[in-house]
Amino acid sequence: MTTLMNGIYLIMLIMLLWITYTDIRSRTISNKAIVAIFVTSIPIALYHHNTINILAALSFLTLGFILFNFNILGAGDVKLISALSLSLTPQQIWPFLWLISVLGGLIVFIGFLFFRRSIRQSGVPYGPAIAVGFFLACFIT
């Protein structure tokens, strides 16, 4: 891997750590952070796969819009999943979704055990599950 790609992965990691922090603290994911993830996803996809997974990104936006309208998932979470999916291959998408589900379930479980009031008032921060799920899907598959 080139130094440039290492730098891009470092930027992605820093942005995902920031998103995780802000999602836990305020249950928000800024649009600026989503744009940064989107911009860093493109060179990652082109470097590793020579293509961008636009179909997955648009599918997640469409499905996410429905989930958002039913208050199942936040808009920032939907945009984050969509932006990250640009850099994943079709073979990485299902592990990515599975990891988000498992890690999100773990966050819900821990949240209800230790932070019940906060979870009930503010909801569940899925940003951490999405961030960890992305890196695991990238490096496991």
TrEMBL record:
Residues passing through the membrane, by range:
7-24, 30-47, 54-73, 93-115
What is the protein name given in its UniProt record?
A: Flp operon protein B
Single GO cellular component annotation?
plasma membrane
PANTHER family noted in UniProt: PREFLAGELLIN PEPTIDASE (PTHR36506)
Q: Which GO terms describe its biological process?
A: proteolysis
Q: How does the protein's chain sit in the membrane according to the entry?
A: Multi-pass membrane protein
**Keyword line:** Cell membrane, Hydrolase, Membrane, Protease, Transmembrane, Transmembrane helix
Q: Which InterPro entries match?
A: Preflagellin_Peptidase, Prepilin_IV_endopep_pep
Q: Which domain of life is it from?
A: Bacteria
